[in-house]
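User: C-alpha cells for this complex, please. No commentary.
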Amino acid sequence: MAHSGTPLVEMRDISISFGGIKAVNHVTIDLHPGEVVGLLGHNGAGKSTLIKCLSGAYQADQGDILINGEKVQIKSPRDARAQNIETIYQTLALADNLDAASNLFLGRELVGPGGFLDDSKMEAETRKIMARLNPNFRKFNVPVSALSGGQRQSVAIARAVYFNAKILIMDEPTAALGPHETQMVSELIQELKAQGLGIFLIEHDIHNVMKLCDRASVMKNGQLVGTVNVNEVTDEDILGMIIMGKQPAKVA
Amino acid sequence: MTNTPPTHAPQGTEAPVNPIARFVRATELDTRMLGMVGALLLIWIGFHVYGALMNGGGVFLTPRNLWNLSVQTSMTGIMATGMVLIIITRNIDLSVGSIVGVTGMVMGLLQVEFLPQYLGLGHPAIWVVTVVAGLLAGTAIGALHGWLIAYRGIPSFIVTLGGLMVWRGMAFLSADGRTISPVDETFALLGGGPSGSIGAAGSWAVGLLGCAAVLWILRSGRIARRTHGFALRPMWAEYTLAALGCGSLIGAVLVVNAYPWPKGILKQQNLPEDAFIAHGFAYPVLILAVVGILMTILMTRTRFGRYVFAIGGNPEAAALSGINTRWVTLKIFALMGMLSGIAAVVASARLNSATNALGDLDELYVIASAVVGGTSLAGGVGTIYGAIIGALVMQSLQTGMVLIGFGDGSYRKIVVGVALVLAVYLDNLYRKKTK
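Assistant:
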C-alpha cells in the first residue's frame, strides 16, 4: 500500500539505552491514518520499548517524534494523551482495586461543580461505551479484579476508545484472550481503522498480522530489520525477518 | 466487540433469600463495617457484663466512660485517618508518634516561653498562632519524609524509622528534656474536659445538623441515581439508613449530655453543688469528626483520593495514566504530618503540658487502628471510617481492661497485641470468602 501525504506518526531515528544496552538502536517507523502497522520481533527485540517512547512511558535518548509532520515532545503519558495517542498495554494497566468507571477515567476524571468527582456521570458514560463494546458487561460496581480476562480487556479498550484517540497503540491485545474474544478485538480493529485511526499493533501471532495489518515493521536486537507491505509478502518472509533478521527477496 | 460472547454469561445476581443478606443488599451497607461495629458492641457489652457480674457493677456502658472513651480515641483516630492513605499506597509511617512529640514541644515553647513575651500572657491570639505553627511544623516534617521517599527513592520504612529517632531526639533537645506547662488557657480547651466541651445545647445543634446532613446525602444520592437511570434502593432501605444514621447521632448526643460536670468542678466554678451541667461533645471529638468527614470527602470525592487508591492498586498503571505518583506520595506524607500536628494539639492540650515523651509509641496504635479498621497492608484498600472504628476498638480494649481491673499495663499490651493479630486474621478469612 503506497501512502501519499504526511504520515500521522513518524518516529525518526529513535535510540534508547538502559545501562549501556541499546534496547532500541536508530529505528525509524511511520504510521498513516486508517492504517494498521504491525510491530514484530522476538521478546526483547525492543518493540515495547520503542512504542513506550510514543506513549510517554519512556523518553528516547535520541531521535524525533513527528505527529502530522510536526515535531512534538512527549515527556509523559499526559503529553501522549494530549496528542490523542492512546495505549492499550499488554498488562492492561488497570488499577485492580477500582471499578470499571474509575479505571476508564483514571487521570481524566469528570468533575462536577466544586471540583468534586462526578461518579454517577462517569458510570453513566462507562455504561454507554460498554454497551457498544461489550453489551453483556454488567459488573460496573465491583473492582476490576473481579472481572474475567475478556472483561478486563474490554475495560482497557474502552479507555482507549472513549477519548477519541487518533493514534492507538495495542500491545498484544489478544494475548490473554480466548478465540471468541480475539475475534471481537479483530472486528474492533477493523472498525477503528475504517474510522481513520492509525493503529500500531504489537503482535506475535503471524496469522493475526497477515489478517489485520497493512504493513509490518520487524525488529531484532533493538534494530529495525525492515518494513514490508503485508500483501506483498508471505508469512514465511515475515518469519524469516523475525527469526533470521533477513530481508525478504522483494522489499517494499 | 459487538457480538454476544458465550463467555460473558449475564452477570446480574438473583435476589438472595436470606433476610440478612437481603437487608445488606438493599441498604448497600459495607458488611465489613457491620462486622466491626458488631465486634465493638460485643467488646462494650462484654466488659460491662463482666464488671456487673464480677465487680458488682458494670461501669463500661456509662455516660462517663463512653465520654472518656470518645476523648481518648480522638488522638489516635485523627492520625489513623492519615495512616489509611499511607498504607493504601503500600507505605508505612513509623514516625507519627515522634512528630507528635516534636510538634508538641514546638507549640509548648511557642505559647509558654516565646509568644507571651511579645503578646502578653493570655493574649487571645496565642492559641491560634500556636496551632497554626504546630500544623505547619508537622506538615513540613511530613513533606520532608515524603520528598525523601518519593523523589529520592528511600523506602518509607527506613525514612520514617529514621524520623522516629530523629524527631524524638529533637523533642528532647528543644527544651533539654524539660516539661513545658501550663499551656495557654484557651489552647487547653482543645484537649477536652468540662470546659473544653460544647454543652447540652451545642451538642443538640451538632447532632441535628448531622441528621440533616445524613438526610441530604441520602436524598441527593437518590436523585443522582435517578438522573442517570441507575437502580434505586428500595424506599424501606432508604428509611432504614436514615433511621440508623440519625439514631446513632441522637444516641451519641443523649450519652454525652447525660454526663454531668463533676462536683469538684462545680465548686471551682462557684456553681451550686446539685446543678446538672452536661458535658456534651468534647472539642477533641469534634475535631476528630471534622477530620473524619474532610478525609472521607478527600478520599471518595476528589481526584487526589482516587489517585491514592489507584497508586495503591497498581502504581505502574497510575503512572501510565498520567498521574504524578511522586507528587501524590509527597502530599500524602505531608498530610500525615499535619494530622500528627493536630493530634499533638489535642494531646498537649489534654495534658496541659508539652513533654518530650508526648506521643511515645503512638505510631504502633495508629497503625494498628488503621489495620484493624480494614486497611490492607497489601495496598489499595482502606476506609476512613474503618480506621476510626479501629481506633475505637483498640481504645475500648485498653479502657475496658483498666475498668475491670484486669492486671497491670503489661496484660493490656498482651491483649491488644493478640487482638491486632486476630483482627487481621479474621479480615483475611473474610476477604477470601467474599472474593
